[in-house]
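Milestone M4 deliverable, item 7.
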Amino acid sequence: MSDNSFGYELESVANNYIKYRPTYPKKLYDTILAYLSNGSEADDRRGLVVDVGCGSGQCTRELSKHFKSVIGIDNSAAQLTEAKQFCAGLDNVEFKLLAAENLSSAFEEGSVDLITAGMAVHWFDMKAFYSASLRVLKSRGALAVFGYLIPTLYNKEANDIFHHQIFRGIFERYYPSGVYRLFDEYKEEFSVMKLYFDDTVRDDSFKIEYNFSVNEIFGLLRSAPQYCYYKEDHPEHPDDVDIALEKLAEIYKTNSRDEKVARGWTPIFLLLGRKPSSDSQIGRQEAKMIEPRLL
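Output delivered:
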């Protein structure tokens, strides 16, 4: 994330992101909240949550139901414009233009109950982000990192076009390195998390079920910066993406491209960690670990 929004600053990407990216299941949020406070608000751990890499605010809005104050941060002004509109009228929500690694410049040490990062941590300088998170979290506060993969369509012919021909074919040359951390399902992120946080948990039991219309499949593609980059490089019409999308439309023969005809799914992976108390072994190490990366 640092000084690069990786294409999510593009206005067309931001507009399509809020319209066509999926929402997370309630079970995911319930698991995060249970981890934070064992399902109880009595221990006053529902004060401040910071949603890092908040994008267009889908997670930020959901978190506002459970916390006194929610602050979404992102380094894309275009995404934050969408987020502010999406969360308009919520008095306990605000947004800041800020890089993930600079958390400690905007939040006091030991002031945050929960930090979330949905579909975002693969863009961050991981170690700098973990260090900054440790500094601003309260003792025994929690970090929740989660993401999902490109949807798999149940129709094999359609999936070959959507998943393999487009996302893992035509778009491949436009992927920055962070995308491959996502494709690896945050395995490295979890390994490093164990060095910084206590009580680390990886939970792969979640999934998103899709029921797309053809137009929604097209919209999901347009929410990817790689679509815009490809179109810039291929001004001719029709190009390979146009041709592939028309083949998809032919597979899902329907009277309307708004009819829900394309079913699919994707796994969600959730990483959880707790800021160590000062008397734990990791806690004693943590004071040494965060200093060099922030000074």
